[in-house]
Structure formats: C-alpha cells, structure tokens
Amino acid sequence: MSAGIVIIPTYNEIENIERIIHAVFQLPSSFHLLIVDDNSPDGTAAKVKELQIKYNDRLFLEVRQKKSGLGTAYVHGFKWALSHNYEYIYEMDADFSHNPNDLEKLYEACKNGADLAIGSRYSKGVNVVNWPLNRVLMSYFASVYVKMITGMKIHDATAGFICYRRNVLETINLDKIKFVGYAFQIEMKYRAFVKKFKIEEVPIIFTDRTLGESKMSGAIIREAVFGVIMLRIRKIFNRL
Question: How far apart are CA 205 and CA 189, in angstroms?
C-alpha cells in the first residue's frame, strides 16, 4: 500500500533530481513521486523519464510549458494527486534541504490524526544548517510576523515540507489560491487553519542546498509581506 505521493516541483535541478528520487524510493514506506517540471532547459525532465523505466509504477512526471511559479506547480500536482486517489499528499524540495527520511515522520503524524503535518524548522528552537544569519533571521521573523497578522499558532508558516490528508486539499478551493512563493505556503496553511483542520508541526533539521541555485527573489519576499495582510483582510470581509 502506498504511503502517499510526494510532489517535487523542479526547474533546473539536474544536479539533484536523480539522487532525490533514489533517496525517496529507498525509504521503508512505499512513497510514490510526482515531479512537476517547468520545462527545465538543463534536462531535468529527460532524466526523470529515464528513471521511469526503473520506477515505472511509482515515478510520475508532469511537464509544464514554462516557469510559472512554485505555487502553481504545487496546485497542478495537488489536482493530479487528487484525481489519482491518493490519501496522503506531500510537498518537498528537490535540493535535499528537506531530508527525505523525514517523510516518514510526516506520514506518521497524519496517520495518527493530523490533517496537515508541517516539517518545522522553528518548533524546537532554530534548526537550520548552512544558511547565513540574515537569511535565518528573515525566515524566523517572517513566521513571527505571520503569527501576529493571522493569529495562527504556527512556528514555521513559510515551511515547504508538508503532508496533507486529501480531505484538506478537497476542502480548500485550489482555484482560488492567489500566491506563488513564500506567500503560497502561508496561504495554504491559513486556509487550512480557517477551516479548522488539525495542524501539527513536526521538528526537522533544514539544510540549505549544496548543489544548484536558489529560486529566492525580492519579488517572492514582497509577495509574502503584503500577501499576509491581504489574506487577513479577505478573511475579515469573508472573501477568503
């Protein structure tokens, strides 16, 4: 029986993709993988197709025509996973900043009653490796800011390592998701919080990528800062 499907969005992850696929499939639980690739020019999708020969019943690939943002990639993956009847649906990065072994912890949390399990960097202190201090502080205080504006009691609101039970994604109107970067991660948690789903934070150690390039940009940061205020305003006026 499958432990669910792990969605990994990719753009130019040729240096990581083969290793992350092998790592997930070596775990004790039987996870499936869906790679949502934004037509990477470095051949990421071609490598996944090559590996599908070995993992034909567990490895799936969706190729989009252009780079359209993290949030839209995940929404694409969520809809695919729901249409294929998966009970547990995960978000994870391709670059090993999320340890594949921690998928087992998220799985156990949802099996034991959580509707949404978050791989949290900040629920037990600050568990981040290889980030410069300014990046750690920005991320940590972003979650403090989100708490203040939204009222969510979540320590790591921008986390992107998550397990959803399918009923959460069925209840959230995915066509109304507005944001694409950090704000997407906040929006998904806030919509689940408003719907009163049980959210659990699972402590993890986050390690910054060693291969490939970060997709962080100033536009993504600005979206998160102002997006949180927009989410709260929409909730106040019952337009979320």
Answer: 20
